[in-house]
Automatic annotation (TrEMBL):
One MF term in the entry's GO annotations: sequence-specific DNA binding
Pfam families referenced in this protein's UniProt entry, alphabetically: DJ-1_PfpI, HTH_18
A biological-process GO annotation: positive regulation of metabolic process
Origin organism lineage: Bacteria, Pseudomonadati, Pseudomonadota, Gammaproteobacteria, Pseudomonadales
Protein source organism: Pseudomonas koreensis
Domain HTH araC/xylS-type span(s) in chain numbering: 217-315
The protein's name in its UniProt record: GlxA family transcriptional regulator
Amino acid sequence: MTTSSQSIGFLLLDQFTLISLASAVEPLRMANQLAGEELYRWHTLSLDGAAVQASDGVPVTPDASAQDGLALDAVIVCGGVGIHNVVTRGHVVWLRNQARLSKRMGGVCTGSWALAQAGLLDGFECSVHWEFLAAMQEAFARVTVSASVFTLDRNRFTSSGGTAPMDMMLHLIGRDHGHELSAAISEMFVYERIRDERDQQRVPLKHMLGTQQPKLQEIVALMEANLEEPIDLDDLSKYVDVSRRQLERMFQKYLHCSPSRYYLKLRLIRARQLLKQTPISIVELAVVCGFVSTPHFSKCYREYFGVPPSEERAGLEAERIEVARPAVRPARASRPSNLLDEARGEATFASVKVLRARA
């Protein structure tokens, strides 16, 4: 585990999404409050130190210019609307310089586009907001673009938009200072479930297919509406007036898998949602998601997600118990930052014990 305070720079690009910035910063603030010490410091940056306008029109005055030479352990690029047009040569040069200094590099929303444009994601896997999935795949052939809500790949960490940066930061905090702290932060934010890298963004099919494949969209809609009692593929073909062979070809061409495989994926994703969000038993889950038996369901689940449903459920129960029993210790005597001064009056201040690795 990390033992010293980390400094993180948030590079704000024009038209960045404010919700993604807040989702990334707030877990750091709460980590400091719950630990009772400065585990993280953060700074907002723009290339020249001038105010940057967020996508909702709110102007944000950064803490410093990117050229001020702040000592940073990590850099996170905050992207948003119109990312194609806002990344400049100056951004690319600065990001490359930071990477050469062995800084950890990250991006939120469309921030991974800027990293890719700087050549910093070549050979890496990354996440980006679903609206830019296809564009990134087309523009950067050496980058593996994932539909996951976030991706951690060596010293690169990227997330999609909205609240996905919170999931990513909670995982990073857990990796640095232990799962108990990240779970307690989630509890403070009334964040019901911390998503992981296996969770996928729900990409609207219309975005993937455009308006040219109404039959395929209709078939997928029928699949989504009939997960408990799956419709036979021959019947699906008849409903939309295409042959079974045409159906197979459409799925292979546009969704890169067979219709049966796609249908199975929909049912397994639904099963995972129910497993994580409800107390429904695994036996009932198998029935509700259209599986002929519990062993068959468990086998398919393990093959797709890499872990049996019983282990996934057991892990969730362990997390809930851990959150319910936070360890308490007094705050350290070292002088806190202003934010920590303000947090001292909170009942939760220094409510989570941060274990230190022995030297």
